[in-house]
Design goal:
single chain, 132 residues, 5-stranded antiparallel sheet, 3 helices, globular
């Protein structure tokens, strides 16, 4: 019984730590759809397709764009520290915040980005290390 209690504590602690990676309350990732990447992603990570539309040092600077993008793509919006994404180019500093669109497949991402109609700074498959 003690082993089970320890396991539950460890899982809850990890989830709490991962949740703290995302400060913006409007950021979401749909975990109901599996990613299309390799199954080698570790526990606590999700492989998705990401289209970055804006970055900023302060997440509050993204508020107006977050509202506008969210109105178009709904729950496919993400606002998180760049450090939460493995697979971003080095030009996205780990201490900056990313405003983007996420999708389980490249085709879905392309549809959402076309609907959004904004320039894209980066489009590619990433591993999300921080979960809401």
């Amino acid at each position: 019984m003690r082993m089970r209690s320890t396991s539950v504590f460890v899982v809850v602690s990890i989830l709490a730590a991962l949740a703290s990676c995302t400060r913006h309350s409007g950021s979401t990732i749909d975990l109901s759809s599996p990613g299309t990447g390799p199954p080698s992603a570790g526990t606590g990570s999700v492989i998705k397709w990401l289209g970055v539309v804006r970055t900023a040092a302060d997440p509050n600077d993204l508020d107006a764009d977050t509202t506008a993008v969210g109105a178009i793509v709904g729950g496919s919006i993400v606002v998180s520290p760049a450090a939460c994404f493995d697979g971003l180019p080095a030009r996205f500093a780990g201490d900056s915040y990313v405003l983007g669109v996420v999708a389980p497949t490249k085709q879905t991402l392309d549809v959402l980005l076309t609907r959004l109609g904004r320039p894209v700074l980066f489009e590619g498959q990433i591993t999300t290390m921080c979960l809401d």
